[in-house]
# Entry
Amino acid sequence: MSVTPATSSHTSQPLGSAFILKKALISALVALVLFSLMIGIRTEAGNQGGLIYWTRFGDLATMVGVVFGGSIIVELLRQWFGPVETDKVVPKPVRAAMSFVGHWLAPALLAFALFVPVIFYHQRYILDLAILVLTYVMLGWGLNVVVGLAGLLDLGYVAFYAVGAYSYALLATNFGLSFWVCLPLAGILASFWGVLLGFPVLRLRGDYLAIVTLAFGEIIRLVITNWQSLTGGPNGVSGIPRPTLFGIPLDNSDDGLAAKLGIEFSPTHRLVFLFYLILAMALLTNWVTIRLRRLPIGRAWEALREDEVACRALGINTTTTKLTAFATGAMFGGFAGAFFATRQGFISPESFTFQESALVLAIVVLGGMGSQLGVALAALAMIGGFELFRGFDQYRMLVFGMAMVILMIWRPRGLVGHRAPTVYLERSEAISSDLVKEGHG
Amino acid sequence: MSDAPILTVEHLMMRFGGIVAVNDLSFNADRRKITALIGPNGAGKTTVFNCITGFYRPSGGAIRLNHDDGRTIHLERLNDFRISKQASVARTFQNIRLFPGMTALENLMVAQHNALMRASGLTVLGLIGAPSWRSAERAAIELARTWLARVGLLDRADDAAGNLAYGDQRRLEIARAMCTEPTLLCLDEPAAGLNARESGALNELLLSIRAEQGTSILLIEHDMSVVMEISDHVVVMDYGVKIAEGTPQAVRDDPKVIAAYLGADEDEAIAVMEKAN
Amino acid sequence: MDYFAQQLINGLVLGSIYGLIAIGYTMVYGIVGMINFAHGDIFMIGGFIALITFLILVSFGLTAIPVILLIVLLVSMAITSLYGWTIERIAYRPLRHSFRLAPMLSAIGMSFILVNFSQVSQGARVKPVPPIIAGGYTLHEGASGFAVQLSNVQILVVVATIVVLALFTWLVSRTRLGRDMRACEQDQTMAALLGVDVDRTISMTFVIGAALAAVAGIMYLLYYGVVDFFMGFVAGIKAFTAAVLGGIGSLPGAMLGGLAIGLIETFWSAYFSVEYKDVAAFSILIVVLIFMPTGLLGRPEVEKV
# Structure
């Protein structure tokens, strides 16, 4: 962890090697104090129940050294690239190339996604990962309606994911309802809860809204954990039926799909099916969202994000507008939850913690609020990047946290930092994110 | 019925804690006329506007809107969005409130929200792309185009509202208010920050709105050239009460008004005024 | 009645700890307008540093409890403050004039870093300490045999909270730094024009908030006798809830909210069910906010049209 004041870029200090060295020394000193006890000393509960400790001065020295070196490197890089502002002046050819890429990236990604099961048919691990990424793409698109379009901060989105998952799990295990019947029910139940959450928070703004949505997410998780008779408590629900292809199961039984088609059964069939299922669900979410943006309701969401007072002066019912945003976002979350339950076959409250909400929110914000493509890219980067650290499970959250901090500092407005107009007369020109508001709710 | 004033404000009272911002204010705004509400800073003009347009609930008094079709609507009983939706009262703001991240055209589309909401069958028809919705959308775009042309912003239709020049933003806000097709248009200092040329164009725009749409206009203004040139009736406020009312000429020569503006006693004000003339 | 009195004592003690953490949230919110999501984890770090300092002191053969406590307090406050300062410098300052959600996400990332950092550096297992301060008083013994207990630790927590709050109130209302802080809260640009060093004032706000969180961490360690890497999350959310309940930005509100959450939690556990104590606390937060959208002592938001 280096300590580098951000203001240094526009002060006229002599940025010589002495300066860099001084800064690195200060950083190392700060690191030494910070880590002295936390890394230099290791505590553990001993055999007799009391605490024992031992020293790790070697590790401490290493960490301080890393900070010292890291600080020098960061400072050199900073001087190399110059002030951060310069990256706004992009040469024309680069900008043209970027707009070309931007234009073709989405179709290319879609085409690639369609062929993922073909390309990676024999790599179950990649298929699994692709399904996971798509689940988060869908969640990101769902939350995007609430946060990106309507500008309402929701820190408890995972609640709707949980409602969807438990709706399907409980309806299927208790009443034997099929996935295709439960899917819409899960969406309806989740959006019902979305409206329920929406009512009390209508008058709230900003951080009050944040804490209430966070509290709501926690309430749902706590109720699921403690209502043992209904939800199985911390043990969760197991034996959730797998989805069927319109009634035809994807297993190796006699009336399974493989037997009917006369081909040899392989467990990958189900994986491929699940992949296309979530792809279709995510694309539906995307299509509906794009469509809604061009309808009065979607424009009202965006207008709400821009200026709520002006909305009211134009006769827009802000109450119903907010509620529909919550309900729509929650519905997509519910769909994703039902999919999650059927994919896992087992769910427990552990899957629905605040970390999940934070992850989905990070995907939306990193993607560039309101941008469908950005959200998809962010989900790919986040979940994919997360997987790279599978071997270092211990350090995953550390790396994830650092990535969040660095990415936010690097691109506070997300990867895709502009907004596409929903209607135009002559030309459709992207609007710079500097103009786009992010709502106060 | 159509001779009745469009807006009748009776004994309007607005208190904030112990402060009386508007005290027993009564005035009428005539149909298809331009009424100006003037007064020194802090006189309570914007508070009156906020009461009329539903952002504040008056502490007392009545605000009646008499529609062309004979309906009478008690504005003090409606709140926020219903004023615009049900009573067809549109307003602009002293410190322009556009949707800066949306294009000029989009701003005008948002203004037609309620009409478009009905046309889109509460989103259902719109989602499936029904022909009735498509034609309604085309009509909405046409209306927006008409207004963009009238305020001279047709070539800026696809630019973000936040990127427009100040004077353009003022006119766009008026166009947006007009897209709600109001009976009464309330403008809060529409000429603030405009140069002489822009303010002249604004006068023409307001006169043409009154003439062509038949919209009644109520405006707060500091720019006396606007007030004197276009208003049919002027109401003067100071310290929350009405101190004078009448034609622009009558008000201009009223010693009480001059005193209020100059903060001097009446004799002195008259002397100043005569010198100025 | 005795049972009630006992719960009242327990609730007040718990509420004091929440209140101390809540002040950190509310201060930072007041001055930079962001939720410092990592604050709960600063509290956790404070607890860990106190624990380690305590272990070292004991292993050096120090036995005088007041001396140990004083050293633990000073070391923990000092190092934890430095954590607060560093985090502001790295994760928040570059985003100060950025979009509202960016610092918040950065703070959530910081929170993950701190949690994982202590998990990796100190292990995932719960760290118990033997009771450091034993004994107490029996205030009243009822006919049924139920005795109202007031332990020395509880007295210490409440007394320490009062002392720290008194110091803190003096700092905010009587010193140059406090005046600068209040000025920055009102208008940073104007404060800077009038010669207030805004960067330094904001840094100090984080430092003071972290120091208060460290005190809370020590109290927690003394009272519950355990620390673990995940304790910052729940305590942080509760304290944040307390800050919002009291009206975020209001310092007395934070303390009041803390006490309210402590009492709600304790009484709900005592009379209804332990499992749903957090649900009760969160539900009451939601109910209060429906009727008072800016909390108990928050300034009502005047809508400027």
